[in-house]
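# nightly structure sweep
# worker-07 picked up a monomer target from the shared queue
# config: single-sequence mode, recycle default, output format = structure tokens
# input follows
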Amino acid sequence: MDADPNGKVTVRALSEVTLELQDGDRVGLVGHNGAGKSTLLRVLSGVYVPTGGIAIIEGSIGSLIDLSLGINPEASGRENIFLRGALLGLSKTEVKAKFEEIVAFSELGEFIEMPMRTYSSGMQLRLAFAVSTIVRPEILLMDEWLSVGDEGFRAKASERLTTLVDASKILVLASHSRELLSKVTNRVIWLEHGQVKMFGPSTEVLEAYFEPKAS
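# output follows
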């Protein structure tokens, strides 16, 4: 946090973050709320541009950070599939080819022709998830492991996420779950107040973060 001569305060979400990720990396992000995890994900996705330094991203990016982005509640489910698809970088032809698959996966049936404002929150999430996971990006960014719908749909969604992760070259996953990070990642970044406190093998970083030694 910096203050200029006029008293204006600037909060630095990230500072002096230097890292390089390679194919095969499954990277976890840990840190307290406000540590900079979501900001780092947004920089990697291209939503935020660094105010200092550079971010070089090579490869197609898939972001599962905000599933509701681009959703128009007044538009039908069908129209929103094309809106969300366009935001994911898909052409209308590509979305058309995947349309029936998306509807079937979302389990919305005839509701697909109704305005999304008539959907329950669970129905909205199912549709957004179904659209967002039809892509197979080289770099996959996630803010927590998504869990949507009832028990049956959650199992199906988890299976699709696993397939998506396996198909990606690089995964970056922010989570508060030690069990999940131990299972999914091979490296972990520990952020504290916007800076990298530790970056290394999952077992080492997770032990240091979740089991701090008494001083």
